[in-house]
Amino acid sequence: MRTSFTLKILPLGLLVVLLAAAALALGPARASRLIVTQIRAPRAASALLCGAALAVSGLLAQCLLSNPLASPTLLGVNSGAGLLIALCGVWFPAGVALRPVFAFGGALLASLLIYALSARVGSRRGTILLAGVAVSSLLSAGIDALHHVFPQALPGYQSFLLGGFAQAAWQTLSPAAWLILAALACALLLGGELDVFALGDETAQSLGQNVPRVRIAALLLSSILAGAAVSVCGLLSFVGLLAPHIARKLFPGSNARRLVLVCALLGAALVALCDLLARTLFAPYELPAGILLSFLGSPFLLWLLLKRRAGHA
């Protein structure tokens, strides 16, 4: 079984490597050492890390709420991170290293709000989705308000809202990268606990699991991953929804630890591909990667909603 999984995941890992190589080699300008090391390399690394982070954050949110529609975008977690990043820009204009910390705080607050709402309404899918949309709209309005009052707080405001990597640099990636890598490692370690957690609170407790501890760990990791990614790429949409569903389709019956690994690779590949297409399809003009992801994610969400509605008809 382990050998079969390894053989199946190898092509996915190879795809990530090929996309990383393509991101370094392709572009509107002829490749030079300076362009590769200072422009394309940080951009490729940012796309790979943020894609993996958002994908695993979405998987953890779905496990936490027992809701396949959960994702950092739909639940307002990304917007919460964005709002605190805007506040960081107001209070600490030169504090680039503080952005991931503020983003984590905003993502955590939004996650706690959604989790409190889900506990109150029993995690009903439609209700949680509507609550998430409402919370996301409220937090996005806060970002807009801060931008209008303090326009210097969010340089590249429009790009930040759409999500993308045009402004990627080692300076902005470095503080977030360590958080992302550490949180991904912890998510892998938490995989076994998530399998037990998925059986339900009573069953998990009867098997000796400390359910509140696992719930808090999943919440913290999901918030760290989403917040760190938003601090680098802005409000990139739908990665946390697309990657977990694709992972479950490609690897049905996989345990949580394997799904974490698959989601990380899928998210990295998906975002790297969208960013590569966004900057090469219309060269020398460039689209934000978030636009392509929205073109993919919006129809997928509609299809998912219609499919589930038909299944419960």
Give keywords:
313 residues; single chain; mainly alpha
Describe the structure.
The chain has helices spanning 2-25, 33-65, 77-91, 99-121, 125-149, 157-162, 170-197, 201-206, 211-233, 239-250, 256-280, 289-311. It contains twelve helices and no strands. It has one domain: ABC transporter involved in vitamin B12 uptake, BtuC (Orthogonal Bundle), CATH 1.10.3470. The model has no long low-confidence stretch (mean pLDDT 84). The longest helix is centred in the first third of the chain and has 33 residues, at 33-65. It has 313 residues and is mostly helical.
Strand content: under 5%
| CATH classification class | Mainly Alpha
- Count of discrete structural domains: 1
Distance linking N and C termini? 37 Å
Query: What portion of residues is helical?
Result: over 70%
The CATH homologous superfamily is called ABC transporter involved in vitamin B12 uptake, BtuC
Question: What's this entry about, in short?
Answer:
By secondary structure, the protein is mainly α.
Write the layout of secondary structure elements.
Elements: H1 2-25, H2 33-65, H3 77-91, H4 99-121, H5 125-149, H6 157-162, H7 170-197, H8 201-206, H9 211-233, H10 239-250, H11 256-280, H12 289-311
Helix pairs in contact: 1-2, 1-11, 2-7, 2-9, 2-10, 2-11, 3-4, 3-5, 3-9, 4-5, 4-9, 7-9, 7-11, 10-11, 11-12
